[in-house]
Write a structure and sequence with these properties.
The protein folds into 2 domains: 100 residues, Metallo-beta-lactamase, Chain A, CATH 3.60.15.10; 163 residues, 3-Layer(aba) Sandwich (Rossmann fold), CATH 3.40.50. 31% of the residues lie in helices and 18% in strands. The chain contains 10 helices and 11 strands. It has a 6-stranded parallel beta sheet, sandwiched between helices. It has a 5-stranded mixed beta sheet with strand order 1-2-3-4-11, covered by helices on one side. Strand 9, helix 9 and strand 10 form a beta-alpha-beta unit. Helix 2 crosses helix 3. It is elongated and about 65 Å long.
């Protein structure tokens, strides 16, 4: 079994090439070709040039959606630069801190917009750990990054993490004194625990998750809180999963003897694009021929 790096919103994602008993299976895992490292799919396909793939198990998250094609992470960066530059006050970015591409996108956007990027301790620690393996921004003031210890972090008494970022710490009062200087990583829990149940006036919240979450009560309430202070709530996100056109191009390039749908609500749609689809049922063994 050989892990092959792929571009995905989560750092360290891989596909698996499985070779046994004269058969070869490629499992794509979650991947995309519109992130900050599109060359990873090219490298994977180059690795497979001499391989005959008997079965390709490939994700199809966006089959059945309007995501035939879409924006790239670099295009999102350009959009965020504009959103930050035109914001009248504090910009708050809410997203998964495990999405390292998004951290980099927000950092670069803050730099281009002339703002200081404020991360929470969790995001800072993610950058610290990933920085041992990849080139990512170092969470320090000389890189234009400050670290905010929010209430929930303070409550956990994680002194070893605190010590790593103490020199780069920023207090919330400093941010609120000059809100237009900052782009700040934000968690909805901060409304109650750090902002005393009232967000800063005219803040701009950039939402960086799947749009399907927006109907959940916590996000509905946050949007109300933003409106109360004359702020705006803007979806600023691209998916961590491949667009339909990229899935089709990838599968055609692999040219497997059979294509097996996974991670999709619409497995029947694979048959609209590939002549050799095998749809499997959970728990039923499948012999690779």
């Amino acid at each position: 079994m050989t892990p092959l790096a792929v571009d995905h919103s989560i750092f360290g994602s891989v596909a698996f090439l499985i070779e046994a008993e004269g058969k070869t299976i490629l499992y794509s895992g979650d991947f995309r070709n519109h992130g900050r490292k599109p060359g990873m799919i090219r490298d994977l396909l180059n690795h497979l040039k001499t391989k005959t793939i008997d079965a390709l198990i490939v994700e199809g998250t966006h089959f059945g959606t309007d995501r035939e094609e879409g924006a790239t992470e670099y295009q999102l960066e350009d959009r965020i630069v504009d959103l930050v530059q035109t914001a009248p006050a504090l910009v708050l970015a809410t997203f998964s801190a495990l999405d390292v591409d998004r951290i980099v996108t927000l950092y670069k956007a803050a730099q281009k917009a002339g703002r200081i990027f404020v991360v929470d301790a969790y995001t800072a620690f993610v950058l610290y750990l990933i920085g041992r393996q990849a080139k990512v921004p170092r969470p320090s003031r000389d890189m234009g990054i400050r670290v905010f210890f929010n209430h929930l972090f303070e409550r956990r008494n994680l002194d070893n993490i605190r010590e790593k970022f103490q020199a780069d710490r920023i207090e919330l009062a400093e941010v609120l004194d000059e809100p237009a200087k900052y782009l700040m990583v934000f968690r909805p829990s901060m409304v109650e625990f750090d902002f005393n149940s009232q967000l800063p006036s005219r803040c701009r919240v950039l939402y960086g998750y799947w749009q399907g979450y927006l109907n959940k009560p916590d996000w509905v309430e946050l949007q109300k809180q933003v409106a109360l202070v004359d702020g705006d709530f803007i979806r600023a996100h691209v998916s961590g999963h491949a667009y339909v056109a990229d899935i089709i191009n990838f599968a055609n390039s692999v040219n497997a003897r059979t294509v097996i749908p996974i991670h999709t609500f619409e497995p029947q749609m694979y048959q609209d694009h590939f002549p050799n689809v095998t749809r499997l049922s959970d728990g039923i063994p499948f012999d690779v021929c």
